[in-house]
Structure formats: C-alpha cells, structure tokens
Amino acid sequence: MGARTQVQTVVTTVDPLSVHSRVEVLSGNTVQTYNTDTQEYEPDRALVPLVLMPYVEASDPDGLQDGRQALTAVEWYEGVPAGDFSNRITAGTDYDIGDGTATGFPKGALKVKKNVPADTPVQVFCVAKFTDARTQTTVRLEMSASLYTMVYESKSYTVRLDCPSSWKINPAAETTWQHTLTAQLYGGAEAVGEGNAAYWWEVMSDGDADWHAPTDEDEELWLACRDGDGVFTRTLTFDARMFKTARFRVRAAYYDGDRPQSAAEDGLRAETLVNVELPPSLKVDLLQVKGFRSAPDFSTPTGYKVLAYDNRGVMSDGQVDAMLRIEWKGRSAKAGSQDVFLGSGREVEFVPKDKGFDPSYPVGVWADVKFYDRHKAVTDGDGRLVTDGEGRIVIAPEYE
What we know:
Distance between the termini: 55 Å
Shape: flat
Number of helices: 2
Helix content: under 10%
Largest sheet: 5 strands, antiparallel
Radius of gyration: 28 Å
Structural class: mainly beta
Strand content: over 45%
C-alpha cells in the first residue's frame, strides 16, 4: 500500500517596494498674491484654477514593478484626513475632481477653484492607492500640498506660522523629538521686527477642553516659549513624545512703545494642528532565524525575530526596539496545553524541551506586539510627579 508524507508549506518572500510619491502641479500655482489696493488675487483661481495630481513611482529589487504607477483610487482632503471622512473634498463651488474626460484634467486630479485668504492657508492631503503587482495587494500612500497667499503692499497686519495648518509626525522617524514653531508678524508684505511685535502662545492637547496659556508644568515637561523674564517669544519648541494630538495657537500685536500685557480677544492669530502617530500601514511579521531542523527530543535551540514594515520600507532594529513592545509565547498542540511565555524583545531564542514542550506534538510560536502610543510623566503611589537626581520630571513610553 502507498503512503503520504507530511505537508511542507512553501513560503514566498517579497521584498518591500521602494516608493516615491508627491503632489504634482499640472497647472496654476500653489502660492497666490493678494493686492490690498485692488483687492484682487494673482492668479485669481476663478479664472486660472490650480490643478493638482498625485505622482507615485515604485520599484522593487527584482525589477518586476518599476516606474510610474497606475492609481486605483484617489481621495482628496482639506486638512489631515478625518476618521469620519468629514473633510473629504467633493466636487462643488471650491473644488472639482477629474474624471478623465477633459484635456489637462486627468482622472483623480484635483482642481482648486477658490482663492485662499492669507490668514488661513490650506493644507490639501491626497490619499492614493495602487496595486503591488507581485502580491496583488493594495498600497496606500499619503501626500500633501500647501496652498497659501502672500499679501502685497497692504497696511493691515497678519501673523503666520512657518508650518502647515495641520501636519503629522511619525514617531518612528524621530531622532530628537524637538520641533520649533516660529511666528512672524507682517505689516503687508514686510516682516515686523521683534522690537515692535508682541506674541502670546496658547495650547490645547490631549484631554484639554479649551485653549490655555502654557503652565509652569507644561514648560518644565514639554514646552519652551518664554524668555528668562517670563515674556513670550516668537518661537515655541515642543517635545513630540508628550502628546498624540495638540493644537498650538499664537496671538500677535504690533506696538510702538510699551509692550502690551495681553493679546486682544479679537486680535491677530494663527494656529496649527499636530498629530503624532505611527503610519497606519504599519504591519509586523514573524521570521524564524534558528532551529529550522529540530532534534527529536526538542533539544535544538530555536530562534525567531519580529519584522516591522510599512509602505515606506522596513523598520530598523533600533526603531523596532523603540516603537514596539514584544512578548513571545508558545503553545503545544497537545490537548489541554496552556500558553507558555518564551521571552521579550525583538528576538527570542529558547530550547523547546526546556520550556516543557512535549516533542510528540508540534508547537505554535507567536509574538504579541504593542505599538508605541506616547510618553507620560511618571508618578508615585500618591500621584506626585517623580523627578531624577537633577530635579527633572521623569517620563516613560506607553504602548497600546
């Protein structure tokens, strides 16, 4: 009589794509000028609209998929894409979406027909998708373009920040975590010198119900926006480890003589929204690195590691160590077996026999992975902040 061997799984390995993407300007200009004398925009988008189109180029080590990619889906948003899609752009008075029937306006392109006021710049986000031809999976990319207006020869004052109105920070790509916002008061097109410009900062971060001036604890823990005399400066530096979402607002005023003590309630202002989050495309896989052939008594050392990657590439070992908290577990196929803790960290090595596994039954191994969330101040049992030997507040990462 015949016999059948055990089933051996054939596993394929697909290297990550190298992807480059950007928002291309097909016609028009992302920057406008507003002339306060004629009260006209140049260019006036009612006459010369701006046309934007996502560009995606991909390549893989084997040369199976190279060059510009055909997009399977394109979505446009005004500001960072909201979870409920409430800020998704649709055709209307301000925008049109190309359907491929008009010359110079390809399918998926965005036509901007509105003029952007100087004090409210717009950050347009694009979500583009294409197919990885090797795996037939969908790759999702995000890119953005800033639309803003310069004021020409106006006597009115405006204040601006040197950043988009909303933007994202990928914690896996951070090295210093420190980011600085710079405000500038303008009189028309001319920057006002610091001797005649007063600034005030306000923040609203995770859990805050309303705007507030930075507290002493804020400045000790994650903000710097005052000089040695306690006066607000034109810059604010924040530590991106200390929040998931934060809004920063600057108020400004021109003065000649004594500096005003506070900003007018209806005075000049500018603000920005910052989101700190890992890429939504982040995934993890398990890779066996040791013990491919195990001894019959389960005495062969066995090793595994976690690989983490997104549509931009593979995380380095240092990024994995910082952004992920990993626990390794195993369970025998023997009836009644329980999960067995194998170790922690990016890699694990163990001898199955030493963990009590019965060599008569196969063993399943997996990693439970938590992703980086944010840092928080450490408190003691009484809820008081813990400080180090130099009196600085101690912070520690949290994972979810």
